[in-house]
């Protein structure tokens, strides 16, 4: 039931994120996260009080811990959904975190705030991990681009050699066949011979 309610709240926020809304997008997600965190704080407080009174009831303790774990997971999943949407450019995460901290500090006692701090720390770790993944992906892409360009520069410096010694069009032998830019015997250049990057070679007159 708790998970279903959490998924429903996320679905509503995601729907609002994909269309113009009267309420700012950041406020929509703030209200959802704030309400979820408040639930975690209240259940945590009740669990502590009940444990002090009935410490011998292991079944009750297990149920309370399972409920808290479910609520914490819902908060993390909600924040992950917020990070994943493309419209997060309209949401300032530093400002959102500040608003959540202020709301928890003003409305909750010390025991509640300790629970909130644990939840918020998990959210920050998730946000940082997402940023780290972006940084790693960027470095990999930069590396791939560097390697590709380096290979092209080296290939251009080497030039392209013909794969066969005959013209691809007239099928006649090519005289003084060599690498592009070389000068054959007698001082004649290879201006009348065309070598493509794929290795296909032909007389310039045959391509006309």
Automatic annotation (TrEMBL):
One of its GO terms (biological process) is endosomal vesicle fusion. Signal peptide: none annotated. Residues 17-156 form the VPS8-like TPR-like repeats domain. InterPro entries: TPR_VPS8_2, Vps41/Vps8. One of its GO terms (cellular component) is HOPS complex. This is VPS8-like TPR-like repeats domain-containing protein. It comes from Fistulina hepatica ATCC 64428.
């Amino acid at each position: 039931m708790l998970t279903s309610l959490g998924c429903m709240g996320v679905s509503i926020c995601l729907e609002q994120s994909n269309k113009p809304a009267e309420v700012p997008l950041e406020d929509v997600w703030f209200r959802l996260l704030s309400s979820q965190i408040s639930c975690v704080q209240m259940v945590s407080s009740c669990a502590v009080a009940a444990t002090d009174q009935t410490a011998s009831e292991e079944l009750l303790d297990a149920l309370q811990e399972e409920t808290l774990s479910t609520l914490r997971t819902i908060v993390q999943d909600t924040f992950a959904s917020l990070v994943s949407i493309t419209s997060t450019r309209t949401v300032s995460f530093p400002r959102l975190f500040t608003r959540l901290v202020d709301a928890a500090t003003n409305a909750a006692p010390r025991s509640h705030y300790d629970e909130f701090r644990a939840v918020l720390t998990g959210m920050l770790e998730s946000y940082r991990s997402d940023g780290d993944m972006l940084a790693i992906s960027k470095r990999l892409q930069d590396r791939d681009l560097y390697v590709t360009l380096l290979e092209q520069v080296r290939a251009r410096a080497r030039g392209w050699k013909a794969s066969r010694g005959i013209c691809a069009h007239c099928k006649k032998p090519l005289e003084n066949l060599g690498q592009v830019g070389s000068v054959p015997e007698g001082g004649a250049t290879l201006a009348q011979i065309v070598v493509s990057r794929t290795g296909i070679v032909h007389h310039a007159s045959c391509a006309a």
